[in-house]
Amino acid sequence: MSLLNFTFYFFCTMVAGSAITLLFVKNIFHAALALLSCLLGIAALFILCMAEFSAVAQILLYAGGVVVLLIFGIMLTNKSGAQPIAIGNTGIFGGVLVGGSLFFLMLFFVNKSIFILPIQKPSAESNTIKTIGVELLTDYVLPFEITGILLLAVLAGAATIAGFKPSKN
């Protein structure tokens, strides 16, 4: 077994293990840490697939942003001195049924597929991050700006809804 295969299987096991841990852990803070581990493992798999931009976006947006937001939300809403927030698992039968059927469906399609792709070594000229950046700011600048304005509107709406307190008149 080569080092590349070992690394791939290690990170796949890490992602699967942390995802399963996320399902069955009772403490919400530990669940956030399991989510962080899962997202970082996916970023490592992106790096192994030579998708550097996706790996950096995974780390910055998901592992950096979403998990930090979750942890701050947990710390700010948890009363000091109180018991930690417990997570209840409901609908386990339906979840196992849907997850198992999707797993076997995916296994069926993977077994029917033929993966004969040659491994290509990246050339020194192929810089995917530069290519994506140039494409975003030349050909796709209008959708990029519209997405930014839409996200700003969503942020303003969320702040308005969160700060809304009905009067007791």
TrEMBL record:
Membrane-protein topology: Multi-pass membrane protein
GO CC entries: plasma membrane
Annotated transmembrane regions: 6-25, 32-53, 59-78, 90-110, 146-164
UniProt KW Transmembrane keyword: yes
Highest taxon above the source species: Bacteria
Pfam families in the cross-refs: Oxidored_q3
One function term, GO molecular function aspect: quinone binding
Function: NDH-1 shuttles electrons from NADH, via FMN and iron-sulfur (Fe-S) centers, to quinones in the respiratory chain. Couples the redox reaction to proton translocation (for every two electrons transferred, four hydrogen ions are translocated across the cytoplasmic membrane), and thus conserves the redox energy in a proton gradient.
PANTHER family assigned: NADH-UBIQUINONE OXIDOREDUCTASE CHAIN 6
Recorded family membership: Belongs to the complex I subunit 6 family.
Protein name (Swiss-Prot/TrEMBL): NADH-quinone oxidoreductase subunit J
Organism name: Chryseotalea sanaruensis
